[in-house]
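WARN no homologs supplied; continuing
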Amino acid sequence: MEKYSQCMQMLIITSISLFLIINIMPITNGLPVAEKKTVETRNSSDLIHVSGTMGQNGWYISNVQITIHPPQGAGPVFYSFDNMTWSEYVTPIIVNSDGFMTVYCFYMEDGNQSEIYRASFKIDKTPPFVTITFHRDGCRVLVSVDAIDNMSGVVSVEFYSDGALIGTLTVEPYDFEFYVGLFGEHTMSVIVYDAAGNSVDAFHTFPYELGHKQNNLHQQMFRLFQNLIEITMYRLFV
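OK structure emitted
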């Protein structure tokens, strides 16, 4: 009878143990698994905010400010520009140099490191470097432009005569020929654009003395022609 009671007790204990293992404690390879904690996941665009003056074609044309917003309750945040050397993030980061850049960051939470987030951006605050040569030969004007932009690149050169757009070039060589009135003063100007939207302009006003001398010549010829008419009329009617 005593042995029967012991067997029943062991059977009951075994049954209870099996019930607990099957229904309460998850099993993985025979070992209990700790309860998983729900972790907030965020896109890089939510975590890293890049701000500045946006130009064209995705280029920033000003200093860029980087602000990192970790999840609520997260620990310290670390950032890097090479994914190797890390610094603790305390205040917004200002980037003031031209170039293609990527900022990386991660945060600590409950002693664990988050995944590494990153955001890429590009800056071109510098307008093209331009050398312009104007040459006029009578009515003919030749403008030669040497333009260099080491970051986003030169995309177009516009040519103006007395404020009116008369031509645009998008590939080298940036040499443009056009014609102006023979007499008077004329202003030629050029505007060079890079892909980021930066621009530089230059203008040249041909000296008034040139037009003034030509105007004097024109006036002298007109007076001579007028005198010839007066002489002819005098001989016809006198």
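The longest helix spans residues 208-237.
OK
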